[in-house]
Amino acid sequence: MLTRIDHIGIACFDLDRTVEFYRATYGFEVFHTEVNEEQGVREAMLKVNETSDGGASYIQLLEPIREDSAVGKWLARHGEGVHHIAFGTADVDGDAAAVRDKGVRVLYEEPRRGSMGSRITFLHPKDCHGVLTELVTAAAERRNAH
Ligand code: CMX
Ligand code: CO
């Protein structure tokens, strides 16, 4: 079951400048930063609020580390902006399988590593009314489930 908006992923050319915009304009502080080599991004997670399922909602700011990455290609075509939305679930494997059964393309056979030790997968934007959609199980949810 999808129980929260885990994050909104925003593609930017300059992570440090974009982080500074979110801090100066809204007062959001950086909760976590990392480089995800596999996804081809340097990212910052800004926590907006905690959620009733024990998780939280974040803004995920993404700067490509390679031009041929998903975010690099998208930025070259569209410029900066909202790149994807992510729903949180305690069971990314089960929810991805259920969505796949409904005929939506799930991009990964098995969920991969996302921010802060989470497990993530993506649904093809062409099957989701133009929205690249991510499903996430946070690391804490995995610990609680086992
Ligand atoms: N939102 C909506 N539509 C998108 C999109 C996005 N973010 N990215 C691509 N598309 C659309 C394009 O506009 C294009 O549509 P048209 O053919 O109508 O022009 C179509 O999808 C194909 O686009 P493309 O540029 O050829 O891109 P690819 O097919 O090579 O890749 C996708 C698209 C979704 C498969 C790829 O972006 C992907 O694998 N994404 C998942 C991984 C990811 O995004 N990682 C970064 C974030 C990591 C994180 O959140 O932790
Ligand atoms: Co994301």
UniProtKB/TrEMBL annotation:
Q: Which domain of life is it from?
A: Bacteria
- What is the enzyme's main class? isomerase
GO terms assigned for molecular function:
methylmalonyl-CoA epimerase activity
What are the EC numbers? Answer: 5.1.99.1
Task: Supply the Pfam families for this chain.
Answer: Glyoxalase_4
The record's Gene3D superfamilies line, in alphabetical order, gives:
2,3-Dihydroxybiphenyl 1,2-Dioxygenase, domain 1 (3.10.180.10)
Keyword Metal-binding belongs to the record = yes
Question: Which of UniProt's keywords are assigned here?
Answer: Isomerase, Metal-binding
Q: Which residues form the VOC domain?
A: 4-138
Q: Which family does it belong to?
A: Belongs to the methylmalonyl-CoA epimerase family.
* NCBIfam families given in the database record: metmalonyl_epim
Quote the PANTHER family the UniProt record gives. METHYLMALONYL-COA EPIMERASE, METHYLMALONYL-COA EPIMERASE, MITOCHONDRIAL
| Name of protein | Methylmalonyl-CoA epimerase
